[in-house]
Amino acid sequence: MKIVCIGGGPSGLYFALLMKKLGHHHDITVVERNKPYDTFGWGVVFSDQTLDNMRQWDPETAEEVQQAFNHWDDIELHFKDSVIRSGGHGFVGIGRKKLLNILQARCEQLGVKLLFEQDVQSDLDFPDADLVIASDGINSRVRSRLPEVFQPDIVTRPNRYIWLGTNRQYDAFTFLFEKTEHGWFQAHVYKFDNQTSTFIVECPEHVWLAHGLDKADQDASIAFCEKLFAKNLQGEKLMTNARHLRGSAWLNFQRVKCANWSHFNGNSHVVLMGDAVHTAHFAIGSGTKLALEDAIELVRQFKALGDTTERIPEVLKHYQAVREIDVIRLQNAAWNAMEWFEVCGERYCDQLAPEQFMYSMLTRSQRISHENLRLRDKAWLEGYEAWFAGRTATPGVRPPMFTPYAQRSVTLKNRVVVSPMAQYMAQDGRVGDDHLVHLGARAMGGAGLVMVEMTAPSADGRITHGCPGLWNDTQTQDFKRINDWVHAKSDAKIGLQIGHAGPKGSTCRPWQGQGMDQPVPADDTEGNWPLIAASPVPYLPHGDVPRAMTRADMDRVTADFVASTQRAAQAGFDWLELHCAHGYLLSSFISPLTNQRTDDYGGSLANRLRYPLEVFAAVRAAWPEHLPMSVRISAHDWVEGGITPADAVEIARAFKAAGADMIDCSSGQVSAQQKPTYGRMYQTPFADRIRQEAGIATIAVGAISEADHVNSILAAGRADLCAVARPHLANPAWTLTEAARIGFKDIAWPRAYVSGKPQLEAGFARERALQTATKGD
Ligand SMILES: Cc1cc2nc3c(=O)[nH]c(=O)nc-3n(C[C@H](O)[C@H](O)[C@H](O)COP(=O)(O)OP(=O)(O)OC[C@H]3O[C@@H](n4cnc5c(N)ncnc54)[C@H](O)[C@@H]3O)c2cc1C
Ligand SMILES: Cc1cc2nc3c(=O)[nH]c(=O)nc-3n(C[C@H](O)[C@H](O)[C@H](O)COP(=O)(O)O)c2cc1C
Predict the structure, then answer these.
(1) Which of 301, 481, 560, 757 is a Cys-bridge partner for 458, taking CB atoms 3.0 to 4.6 Å apart?
(2) What is the Cα–Cα distance from 718 to 391, expressed in whole angstroms?
(3) What is the DSSP letter of 505?
(4) In 445-509, which ranges are continuous DSSP H helix?
């Protein structure tokens, strides 16, 4: 085959040499517009794992890289007056020039033709090539020529960064944070040879503008950075090697991804590779890794499917299918890490103590969890666990999940909440044996707080005929029986979630009709009831249309909420949560999708919050002063024009000002048009943002399914409690089970169950030992 690589960066060169190795008869040329050994940038960094991968494909190159690289394990944070270091992270740093020189020399050795100083205009310049590799970097001309084919999706990010170097020696991947009168700057620093370290300085656009750096030339920018980081640089200079760039040397990161990676141009098959097809932010330093692994995968496919011209279409198809998955995974992690650095100045730097800031930074990509950190550096993690626990009533080395949490006069024994879950088992709003068994089992199961499902303040506030209510004395006594049992037989606290279904009321139990939220048929024997809401907007297109509430309706519903609250106190609940989420009555006021009022209760967010805040204030006044109250909100409607996470911060601020103790951060279910992005802990970013920006304690909820998730969330300060719903349906003793799974033994089991404890612990200990042994193979 005749192959031309446009662009002699890591991807083009590495592909060329591996392909030549695969079949010496291939005629391979790399065309590069720069001179040999002439490149921008300083060092690049990738993980040990990438080098192991390279070793399998071309030991000679890997050996050269190994000789030239700088290896280090530690990450060091310089933040305020603290220097914190943790180990076990395993990085490889190498000068970009050095890496390219190794690849160029190896290409020549294997017989790849290298053409320098040739600026290629198009993939059509090589009509006799069977295959053209567009390895022409982030601004790929080949990609730009055919946007309709490759369908690039390019996002320019708001932060500014400048890529500098220094001769100051660093022996760890170092992160420096400095505050100016206009905001925070950070530097990402890593050594890549015996004399030089890469020194990338980054800040938000508004901070950059406020310092006039948009008008600063390179020398002025360097002088600025030298002054800013003078304490750390200890007299060393910062250097640029981007003299060829005109104007400001400060860049915005561009995230590139493409729907299609290859195409036939009439003569040749053309395929994008490396930065031309995808970029990953330097916050996890993996652009070069991706470029090298692209090259490996394409060669792997040629090896597997045949390295002949006829096989090219098949090979390119498989190449994209396989690589796309890894690339998306890495881009997602890089995106999280990038966002962390974009917001850290406003969200974390002034909010978190240095110890917690370090933890938050280390877990910024959300790929590294609490238990990963334990594997990397046990001593550091245990030190951090002790720091975290030291701020609670139970000091010592223990996972954050198993530290107590105090709110008003209530202390939860640990940070796990059984999230409220509708059972649809009530009759006439009364809870009975089903609830005693359900709630009792979960109270025995180890969680610190068990929340009762949404309970209505009036009969028309129920979701279904099977939902509980608290509007009469009998119902109060029914709840009291359960609460007395829970208090007598467990050390869990029990809370009530109080809420009015509003526009989502009068629906069937999920198993009665066609699933959730289906309206009760008009001829149903149990009967239907008229709905109320902020506005006459039905939840489902075929749902019953609610009536917009009048002021008299509002007064009646507020009074119902207050009466219910008094009953909740009589029934002995420890905690009360006001349900302002999921499209129910109070949520229908908050979201602009469901509130179309033109009076004082519609329009601006402040107006839309007015009624929910009135209810909150009345309920808070009726609820005993010494007991806590949380508010559940939908922090994101997942619909264009609906509530956004930024609105959620304002909502949280308003409830905080009204006296709420915590915000329980759920999302969605406000509009049937929603398009949520599900994933592990997918709602936790809302809890994190609200906690830092509104300055109120939060409960994270949603796809939190392991102790490792809970510990990672709490330790990073992303929430104060974690609510777990569906896992508790499968396993009432979820907390006890997870404790055993991670080897935490200092947890009390119910007296009658204790003989199950050592057995469960031993089983998990065996599993962990087996995993460790398998990893060592
Ligand atoms: C500030 C910063 C820090 C980074 N840090 C890291 C890091 O720590 N670790 C990491 O792994 N990655 C890092 N990267 C990313 C990394 O540099 C790239 O992801 C990687 O180089 C991609 O390799 P590539 O071969 O696809 O493209 P490139 O390395 O960009 O190579 C493309 C080549 O094509 C040539 N070319 C372009 N157009 C033409 C044309 N028309 N004709 C001829 N030649 C052409 C260019 O001159 C260039 O040599 C960083 C990037 C930046 C901006
Ligand atoms: C069967 C079921 C019933 C639920 N009922 C309620 C409820 O009454 N009130 C509420 O706020 N959320 C309710 N939810 C939502 C959960 O509390 C929780 O927010 C959601 O399930 C995400 O958590 P998970 O991923 O741990 O399941 C319910 C969820 C389930 C699965």
Answers:
(1) 560
(2) 16
(3) -
(4) 473-489
Tokens, residue 648: 């959620």
Spatial distance between the Cα atoms of 437 and 439, rounded to a whole number of angstroms: 6
How remote is the CA of residue 138 from the centroid of ligand 1, in Å? 7
The length of the chain in residues reads: 777
Contact yes or no for 189/176 (Cβ under 8 A): yes
> Which residues are registered as beta bridge partners of 70?
93
d(CA 525, CA 252): 64
Give the whole-angstrom CA distance, residue 476 versus residue 564: 9
**Could you tell me if 571 and 629 are in contact, meaning their C-beta atoms sit under 8 angstroms apart?**
no
Q: Are strands 152-166 and 410-412 parallel, antiparallel or unpaired?
A: unpaired
Is-contact 684 718, C-beta < 8 A?
yes
Q: What is the number of other CB atoms lying within 10 angstroms of the CB of residue 352? A: 19
Distance in angstroms (rounded) separating the CA atoms of residues 710 and 464: 32
Q: Under a CB-based contact definition with an 8 Å cutoff, are residues 420 and 453 in contact?
A: yes
Give how far Cα 19 sits from Cα of 56, 107, 272, Å. Answer: 14, 10, 16
Distance of CA 553 to the CA centre of its chain: 41
Distances in whole angstroms, Cα of residue 517 to Cα of each of 149, 497, 506, 521, 615 = 43, 19, 9, 12, 25
Q: Is the CB of 558 under 6 A from ligand 2?
A: no
Q: Which amino acid is at 150?
A: F
Distance 6 CA to ligand 2 centre (A): 53
Active site annotation includes 584: yes
Q: Report which DSSP code applies to 539.
A: S
Alpha carbon of 725 to ligand 2 centroid (Å):
6
C-alpha closest to that of 256 among 225, 293, 233, 290: 290
pTM of structure: 0.92
In the sheet where 262-264 sits, what is the strand order?
Answer: 113-115, 27-31, 2-6, 131-134, 269-272, 262-264
CB 212 within 8 A of CB 205: no
Task: Check residue 150 and give its pLDDT.
Answer: 98
Of 419, 582, 631, which is best to mutate to test ligand 2, by the most ligand atoms within 8 angstroms of its C-beta? 419
Contact assessment for residue 530 and residue 460, using Cβ atoms and an 8 Å cutoff: yes
Question: Which of these, 223, 327, 224, lies nearest to 278 by C-alpha position?
Answer: 327
Measured CA to CA, the distance from residue 404 to residue 392 in angstroms comes to 6
The pair of three-digit structure tokens given for residue 457, joined into one six-digit string: 């303040």
Q: Kindly state if the Cβ of 422 falls inside 6 Å of ligand 2.
A: yes
Q: What kind and span of H or E run contains 321?
A: helix 312-347
Counting as low any pLDDT under 50, the low residues of the chain are: 776-777
**What is the residue whose two structure tokens read 């065309």?**
31
- How does DSSP assign 619-654, residue by residue? HHHHS-TTS-EEEEEES---STTS--HHHHHHHHHH
Q: Do residues 201 and 174 touch, judged by C-beta distance below 8 A?
A: no
Name, in order, each residue with C-beta under 8 angstroms of 411's C-beta and a sequence gap of 6 or more.
Answer: 393, 404, 405
Intra-chain end-to-end CA distance of the chain, in Å: 40
Q: Is the CB of 726 under 6 A from ligand 2?
A: yes
Which residue type, as a one-letter code, is found at position 86? S
